[in-house]
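Title: Comparing notes on inverse folding

I've been comparing how different people in this forum approach sequence design from structure. To keep things fair, I'm posting one structure and asking everyone to reply with a full sequence. Here's the target:
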């Protein structure tokens, strides 16, 4: 069982705090493993195993626990005689009224509660009302490039980065080496499980064919500005939907994209007007949760590398806790504005700054920004030049391994 130290450290920062820890992320990204790592750490710290209750509702062991009363009754049978109870709950959404049981545990017992979920609906349910202000959401992702190196016990290099771009970062592919067929089998299994359980079933999707077409379109257009209306029209014009069919309603496309976002398959980076200092309603960009998943869907092809690199940088910024937007500066665009409580920065992503024209194109939006926040170009180039006009230049691999 490989360690995810940064995520474990985050959980430990909240250890024994009153708030409920809600861990979310796409299926098979390592949420259950993280709870196992937490349980092992608790035992290292002298917590008796009897005080750690770990229930994974994905297991058939708990198939008879179908509502909150049964859930509550099961847990109280295992309440420790002495000391705090550590309650680790995986995927409770299929237990009717599970939120009521969680709230009651918090009220009735001395306990520290950790919950995982594979759909953002976890916090749009009654739980968010019952425990309003008393929970923290911790999102986890497939392996970063830095974690990928650690899991494979390999060194940073152009070769290992290309493998990462090819196969992605789902932890379950680590043992498969470079076996493309087996990796595709695993990724296909992850994809179909997410689509069936976290998208179609939870959102009562009626037109599965349209859903699959939208997924293919978004995967093929990561990093491109788009809208629900333009997607609907493109699905017909590109013959992803038969021309004899009507253009799908924009509201339907919006709902299906919303379902994909809730299942953590795609993320949206909204446009932000730097000068006007306001979010814009149209032409955001979408990024997929894992490049390996994209390759499985579209085939392995050496095209659109600039947007693939953008996707990798976007996810890394999310891992580092940033809210990420696409920046509009007059008629120009900044790839990313990244913000969190203690920091703000502007980022351009460019595969190579190979000529003066390209360099000028990347610098121009930064020059139009009239504030002094950090500005960085991330590029695959290996250069001794660390800045232009005070604008940082960082090699992609170096930045990913910071």
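Reply #1:
Here's my take.
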């Amino acid at each position: 069982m490989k360690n995810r130290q940064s995520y474990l450290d985050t959980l430990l920062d909240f250890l024994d705090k009153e708030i409920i820890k809600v861990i979310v992320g796409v299926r098979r990204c390592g949420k259950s493993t993280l709870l196992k790592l937490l349980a092992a750490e608790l035992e290292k710290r002298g917590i008796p195993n009897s005080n750690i209750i770990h229930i994974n509702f994905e297991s058939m062991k708990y198939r008879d626990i179908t509502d909150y009363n049964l859930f509550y009754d099961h847990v109280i049978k295992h309440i420790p005689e002495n000391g705090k109870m550590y309650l680790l709950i995986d995927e409770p959404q299929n237990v009717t009224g599970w939120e009521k049981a969680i709230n009651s545990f918090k009220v009735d017992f001395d306990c520290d509660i950790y919950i995982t979920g594979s759909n953002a609906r976890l916090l749009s349910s009654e739980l968010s009302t019952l425990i309003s202000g008393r929970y923290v959401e911790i999102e986890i992702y497939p392996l970063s490039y830095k974690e990928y190196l650690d899991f494979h016990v390999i060194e940073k290099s152009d070769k290992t980065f290309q493998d990462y771009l090819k196969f992605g970062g789902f932890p379950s592919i680590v043992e498969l080496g470079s076996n493309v067929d087996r990796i595709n089998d695993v990724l296909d299994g992850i994809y179909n499980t997410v689509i069936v359980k976290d998208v179609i079933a939870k959102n009562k999707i009626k037109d599965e064919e349209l859903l699959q077409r939208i997924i293919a379109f978004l995967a093929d257009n990561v990093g491109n500005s788009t809208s629900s209306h333009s997607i609907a029209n493109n699905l017909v014009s590109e013959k992803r939907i038969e021309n004899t069919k009507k253009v799908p309603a924009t509201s339907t496309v919006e709902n299906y994209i919303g379902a994909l976002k809730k299942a953590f398959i795609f993320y949206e980076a909204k446009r932000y007007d730097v000068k006007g200092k306001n979010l814009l309603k149209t032409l955001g960009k979408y990024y997929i949760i894992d490049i390996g998943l994209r390759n499985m869907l579209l085939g392995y092809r050496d095209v659109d590398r600039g947007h693939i690199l953008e996707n990798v940088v976007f996810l890394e910024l999310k891992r580092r806790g940033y809210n990420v937007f696409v920046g509009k500066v007059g008629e120009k665009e900044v790839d990313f504005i990244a913000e969190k409580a203690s920091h703000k920065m502007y980022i351009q992503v460019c595969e190579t700054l190979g000529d003066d024209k390209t360099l000028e194109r990347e610098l121009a939006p930064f020059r139009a920004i009239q504030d002094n926040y950090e500005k960085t170009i991330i590029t695959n180039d290996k250069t001794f030049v660390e800045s232009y006009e005070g604008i940082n230049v960082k090699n992609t691999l170096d930045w990913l391994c910071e």
